[in-house]
Amino acid sequence: MNGDKSILSILVDNEPGVLSRITGLFSGRGYNIESLSVAETMEPGISRITMITRGDKPIVEQIKKQLNKLINVIKVLDFTEQRHVLRELALIKVHARSENRAEVLRIVDIFRCKIVDSGPEHYTLEVAADEDKLSALLNMLQPMGIKEIARTGSIALVREMH
Amino acid sequence: MELTGAQILWQSLKDEGVDTVFGYPGGAVIDFYDALVNYDIRHILVRHEQGAVHAADGYARASGKVGVCVATSGPGATNTVTGIATAYMDSIPMVVITGQVPTSLIGNDAFQEVDIVGITRPCTKHNYLVKDITKLERIIKEAFYIARSGRPGPVLVDIPKDVTNSRTLYKGIKDIQMESYNPTYYPNTKQVAKVVGLIKQAKKPIIFAGGGVVLSKGSEALTHLARRANIPVTASLMGLGAFPGTDEKLWLGMLGMHGTYRANMAISDCDLMLAIGVRFDDRVTGKTDEFANQATIVHVDIDPTSIHKNVTVDVPVVGDCRLTLEALNQLLDAEDPEEIGPERREWLGQIQKWKDTNPLKYDQQNCETIKPQYVVEKLFEITKGDAIISTEVGQNQMWAAQYYHFSKPNQWLTSGGLGTMGYGFPAAIGAQMAFPDKLVVDVAGDGSIQMNIQEMATAVQNKLPVKIVILNNQYLGMVRQWQELFYKKNYSQTDMTHAPDFVKLAEAYGAAGFRATRPDEVEAVLKKGIETPGPVIMEFMVSREECVYPMVPAGAPITNMLLV
Ligand SMILES: Cc1ncc(C[n+]2csc(CCOP(=O)(O)OP(=O)(O)O)c2C)c(N)n1
């Protein structure tokens, strides 16, 4: 897909079918979703969808307008040009036999991950990071042998100005 | 007051001012029909649910009100989809009520279960599955509000059977406010002022009007603007009737693939385009890079997604078309008329030259068979341009657009966006319900009319004097035209010689039928058909290989016209 990455934060009614309205809009109009994560906000009945999408400027403008047009969409915020924090959560199950257990622990320390499960042959790490850091971590773990990965999509909030 | 779900439905419709509903019963909606007898609402029993939706659509287009239809679950619901998509593409306000299996069975592949909310998600403005009877009243209220406000469109409400027959308090909700839905009606005043400045400066301005002008009831304001500022007007297929088609000086005719020579040339030469309530459909723009590339483009639309979607716009104005036109008029009226476009004479002269060199034309005099254009032109003359015209899709639709000159909005009912064959006849039935005393004529092709011909029974049963003019070329004419021009005359699967005897067919349904085979019979058959009470089919055996001209090949620049 061409174009730049955009980070959209979409506040929606928390109702059945809302997510499929949104994904249906993307598939029906040929837009691209790179990642998507959804959960309820502090306000009951309202969910926040964080979406990473890609496209040139007019496409992203059109995406935002089309999203806004959906009746269940309350607000579409574009964080791309704003200072923001962005995190993705990953669980990584990595091979850890005696010869490289120490190495894994060292990496865990450097990247400030947590070990959430361990066994004679593996560790499972939990890490919340942005994409760059995540891919650096995966690079480091690669030689040990990664058994499985589960990643959430990104979530983001705008930084407060002080 | 405690009411059943079925009663809440009808009471809500009454409160919305609905007097006519089109529908077809079935197990999941049988309670609705049972309750209907106690409500003073006319129900038109169609013969196919697609007919119900198109009829509701025709009712809405002709009257400007919300059209309403009812269908049962499963096959009843799926039969509505083409009609819903048709209304969605043309932004027609409509509420579609479907029955659903009881909530306890949803998802179990129950008898006559279908996920109609899922199926219609991409072709409705919004839709609902009512899972809880206490929400029913509010949802119906919202459905009407959404259907008619902002950019109008169809809204579907799917009601499970147990919701229909349980009871709850009816509150009589008056107002609806929705946090997530706030259409912008009033245009930005700075943008409006900017547009006025552009109008004053422009040497070669043009107005391009679309369905949004009709939907917003803005045609009076549009006509005032055009005449006040001396700006010629063209329109999309959906915009016909927004400006008087009989205005010799300023009316250019339709734009686009089958638009007039002068409209397409003028668009390509203009220095200012006021595009109002249009969406720049590819049938209008042709190749977009070369569309109006000399012009500053102003685009007025209530739907922000329309703006910059297909064509890059210089001055976007988000707002209701009528309100925006009125705001423009208010500023323009304060100006000295002498100062608004003093140099328009040259531009209007140029347009007249285009019109004189390549007018719409056909030659009936030297032809022994009936020219379809002649039939439409005679229909225009005989009805004095005063009929409500619906059309099917194909050549018949284009000839109706070209040769019936529309002077008022809501007089022209055609499936513009989706191009749905089978639309015109049920739509005419809907329009006739809205206006029992007006003359309503469906201009049809022999192919299209067979798609919803079963509604003859509906027309006869309800004594609706709808007139059908079939331009019978014994072909799927428009497809044949493409095959002739772009597929080396390989008329694959477009021959329609095997058709019913339409005159006998009309009679079989209890209607009247007349046929003309020679040009000298056309006028008499039209007159007789129109004078005969009740529904009438008038069949005109027309020149088989007549083509619609001018024509711009799909995707070509709109100045690239094939002329007669
Ligand atoms: C439901 C549907 N199916 C197919 C088409 C494709 N189509 C467009 S025009 C046309 C031919 C229409 O033939 P007819 O109704 O005889 O009208 P004519 O063009 O001859 O006036 C067809 C098949 C369509 N628009 N709608």
From TrEMBL, chain A:
Family annotation (InterPro entries): Acetalactate_synth_ssu, Acetolactate_synth/TF_NikR_C, Acetolactate_synth_ssu_C, ACT-like_dom_sf, ACT_dom, AHAS_ACT, AHAS_small-like_ACT
Domain ACT: 7-81
Catalytic activity entry: 2 pyruvate + H(+) = (2S)-2-acetolactate + CO2
Keyword tags: Amino-acid biosynthesis, Branched-chain amino acid biosynthesis, Transferase
EC class of the enzyme, as a word: transferase
Keyword Isomerase attributed: no
GO molecular function, one term: acetolactate synthase activity
Pfam families from the UniProt entry: ACT_AHAS_ss, ALS_ss_C
The protein's annotated pathway: Amino-acid biosynthesis; L-isoleucine biosynthesis; L-isoleucine from 2-oxobutanoate: step 1/4; Amino-acid biosynthesis; L-valine biosynthesis; L-valine from pyruvate: step 1/4
This protein's record includes keyword Endoplasmic reticulum: no
EC number(s) stated in the UniProt entry for this protein: 2.2.1.6
Entry's family note: Belongs to the acetolactate synthase small subunit family.
Subunit structure: Dimer of large and small chains.
Function: Catalyzes the conversion of 2 pyruvate molecules into acetolactate in the first common step of the biosynthetic pathway of the branched-amino acids such as leucine, isoleucine, and valine.
NCBIfam families tied to this protein: acolac_sm, PRK11895.1
Protein name per the record: Acetolactate synthase small subunit
Species this protein is from: Desulfobotulus pelophilus
Gene name of the record: ilvN
From TrEMBL, chain B:
Keyword Metal-binding: yes
Cofactor(s) listed: thiamine diphosphate; Mg(2+)
Recorded superkingdom: Bacteria
InterPro entries xref list: Acetolactate_synth_lsu (IPR012846), AHAS_TPP (IPR039368), DHS-like_NAD/FAD-binding_dom (IPR029035), THDP-binding (IPR029061), Thiamin_PyroP_enz_cen_dom (IPR012000), Thiamin_PyroP_enz_TPP-bd_dom (IPR012001), TPP-bd_CS (IPR000399), TPP_enz (IPR045229)
Domain Thiamine pyrophosphate enzyme TPP-binding: residue ranges: 393-539
This protein's UniProt keywords: Amino-acid biosynthesis, Branched-chain amino acid biosynthesis, Magnesium, Metal-binding, Thiamine pyrophosphate, Transferase
Domain Thiamine pyrophosphate enzyme N-terminal TPP-binding: 4-118
Protein name: Acetolactate synthase
Organism expressing this protein natively: Desulfobotulus pelophilus
Organismal lineage: Bacteria, Pseudomonadati, Thermodesulfobacteriota, Desulfobacteria, Desulfobacterales
Gene responsible for this protein: ilvB
